[in-house]
Amino acid sequence: MGAAVAQIEHPPVQQSLFGGSVEEPPIVEPAIPDDELVSIARRVPKNAHLGTSSWSFPGWVNTVYGAVYPVATLARHGLSAYARHPLMRCVGLDSSYYRPLTTEQFAQYAAQVPEDFLFLVKGFLGLTTSPYSARGVSIKGDPVFLDARYARDTIAPMMEGLGPKLGAVLFQFSPLGALHTRAPGAFADELESFLSELPVGPQYAVELRDPELLGERYERALAATGAVHCASVHSRMPPVDEQVSDPGRGPLLIRWMLGAGDDYESASARFSPFDKRARPDELNRNRVTGMILKALSSERDVHVVAANNAEGSAPLTVRALAETLVQRSTARDW
Domain boundaries in the chain? Predict the structure, then answer.
């Protein structure tokens, strides 16, 4: 689901006949936005950062990219074109979930986007995968589940490489298994201890896949450490606007990932090549819009990313969400 990790190269530079240098055309050209899209983007509140959970999809031709490019080309060179889309002001960075990245790799990503662009960066999967869960058993090496010292070593490059473009560090917990779901209070205690030992500065967010871990004790752990819950539209979780009773004081983070009753593999197969909204989800669009409007009325920042598996095409989901947001906020003065 995340973009492949690769060194992002700047366009080659050639010498001008009159001295100096001239940049060659970008390797990936952005799509030319229509007037309606530009108008919608201008009306989206500035502190509402919308985007997608990744960017390397050839099926996004004419919505994000100006031509069909291979996945590898988009992974290496597509981010700057993605960031020129009028609505895309943030993106999920999933490659760090599969292996920690270096400061240089983060810096190369940051160099491709405008100053007000934000990255929602996933923490390494070993930090959020219980060694006793089905997935944890398959992970090789020493367990680092909720290991704050290991986490600090992976967060430092994010801070150094992305600087102010680091919107949040997201800890997405895979299903943790009965050992944790039967003792949600103990998990909340471990989570609070872990979060309290992380470097000061970044916004931290937590996303769960076990509804049993939600509740008052979980929310207290977040509040005590300044972290926020990342609300997810996901088939394993309760309705996105009912997951926490107290949204906290930090930004509103939402990931619109997977429709009701769906799983990742079947949704990916059904929606590929992700070039249309094959299954519009008006219910969740209205739920997410309501959450955004409530957060904006409280002067909170908003970060929302959508995945292809939500409705079939993440950029078109973002556009529909922006249209609904603008329509419902017409009477408001931002």
Answer: 13-328
